[in-house]
């Protein structure tokens, strides 16, 4: 067996780099959630993270390890939103120029926030593309070659994966033993980092991944024993519209994740409403994946202590309003 891309020491080193830079996000409880699920539920609220999602952790951990030469030429990223903001903000904090390749149908708030983080930074820009007709990897590779920039992928990179794992590490160090940890899955950066952190601290913990029903590529990949590629899935969980897990993330998922389950868009909407109404929390559709599996009864953890990562809270207000009060 070849070694996994990251070890617990990488996540601990990332936590030290993020100390005083990333927020130590709150762990939220809800009596209603506990009653409904019969479990003790601990929500790690990464919707309260800087730029509104856990992605800041991985982006900053990657850029903070650039060499002086890499710092001068800068970082390139392609992303449907939160990774873009993470790299743009990290670049601003570290004085590193960033070019972000984004789909032209990315949520307006994410596009605006990314540009705002880059404002006034020489050499920084957003480049738009059509994700249904153009190949973002090819566009990214061309710009990287032209400007000598370092490509930071949204999930398939050891420094990104290690950074993402710091949220689960904080959760477990704060609340102690957990029987299960529910984590949303796009390309698998968050769950691979989370699984390494969780299984190192609590070897018996059951780490469960949650994907949108329409985009269950990782679930298919686990069943098949190899990475399965799917069409761009149609789901409101825009942070999980990935077509395949990564070459580095998938082996970690295979080794350390118990299973992947799926939830529907309707279940995500009900979960978003639960967070707004009962907990006064704005959680974006993708951020609801883990919680939806538990609150909607896809996962039954009666009598157990369960951690859930709320991965982010970035959602356009008009779109959010539509989810809360469907017409
Ligand atoms: C990126 C993202 C995910 C998925 O993370 P992966 O590391 O790609 O699996 C989940 N939720 C939010 C809010 C995200 O931005």
Give the structure's gist in a few sentences.
The protein has 327 residues and is of the alpha/beta class.
Mind explaining what this structure looks like?
- The chain is of the alpha/beta class and 327 residues long.
- It folds into two domains: 215 residues, Rossmann fold; 96 residues, Rossmann fold, CATH 3.40.50.1100.
- The strands form two sheets. A six-stranded mixed β-sheet has the order 1-2-10-7-8-9, with helices on both faces. A four-stranded parallel β-sheet has the order 5-4-3-6, with helices on both faces.
- Strand 4, helix 6 and strand 5 form a beta-alpha-beta unit.
- Helix 3 crosses helix 8.
- It is globular.
- It binds pyridoxal-5'-phosphate (PLP).
Model regions low in confidence, pLDDT < 50 over at least 5 residues: none
Count of DSSP H/I helices: 15
Rg is 18 Å
**Strand ordering within the main sheet:** 1-2-10-7-8-9
Number of domains: 2
Fraction of helical residues: 40-55%
Classified by CATH, the class of the largest domain is Alpha Beta
- Coarse structural class: alpha/beta
Q: Name the ligand types.
A: pyridoxal-5'-phosphate
Largest sheet: 6 strands, mixed
The CATH architecture name of the largest domain reads 3-Layer(aba) Sandwich
Order of helices and strands: HEHEHHEHEHEHEHHEHEHHEHHEH
CATH topology of the largest domain: Rossmann fold
DSSP strand count: 10
User: Strand content of the residues, in percent?
Assistant: 5-15%
Mean pLDDT: 95
Terminal-residue CA separation: 53 Å
What is the overall shape? globular
């Amino acid at each position: 067996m070849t070694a996994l891309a990251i070890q617990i020491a990488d996540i601990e080193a990332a936590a030290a780099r993020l100390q005083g830079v990333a927020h130590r996000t709150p762990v939220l409880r809800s009596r209603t959630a506990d009653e409904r699920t019969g479990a003790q539920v601990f929500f790690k609220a990464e919707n309260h993270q800087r730029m509104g999602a856990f992605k800041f952790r991985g982006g900053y951990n990657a850029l903070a390890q650039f060499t002086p030469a890499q710092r001068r030429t800068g970082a390139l990223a392609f992303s449907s939103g939160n990774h873009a903001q993470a790299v743009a903000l990290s670049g601003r904090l570290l004085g590193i120029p960033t070019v972000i390749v984004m789909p032209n149908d990315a949520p307006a708030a994410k596009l605006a926030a990314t540009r705002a983080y880059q404002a006034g930074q020489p050499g920084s820009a957003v480049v738009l593309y059509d994700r249904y007709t153009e190949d973002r990897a090819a566009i990214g590779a061309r710009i990287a070659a032209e400007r000598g920039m370092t490509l930071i992928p949204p999930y398939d990179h050891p420094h990104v994966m290690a950074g993402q794992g710091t949220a689960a590490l904080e959760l477990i160090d704060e609340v102690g033993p957990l029987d299960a940890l529910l984590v949303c899955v796009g390309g698998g950066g968050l769950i691979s980092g989370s699984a390494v952190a969780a299984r190192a601290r609590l070897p018996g913990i059951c780490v469960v991944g949650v994907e949108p029903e329409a985009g269950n590529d990782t679930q298919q990949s686990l069943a098949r024993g190899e990475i399965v590629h799917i069409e761009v899935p149609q789901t409101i969980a825009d942070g999980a519209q990935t077509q395949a897990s990564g070459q580095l993330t998938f082996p970690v998922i295979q080794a350390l994740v118990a299973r992947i389950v799926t939830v529907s868009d309707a279940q995500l909407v009900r979960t978003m409403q639960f967070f707004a109404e009962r907990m006064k929390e704005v959680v974006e559709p993708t951020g609801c994946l883990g919680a939806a599996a538990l609150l909607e009864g896809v996962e039954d953890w009666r009598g157990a202590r369960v951690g859930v990562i709320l991965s982010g809270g970035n959602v356009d207000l008009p779109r959010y309003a539509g989810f809360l009060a469907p017409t």
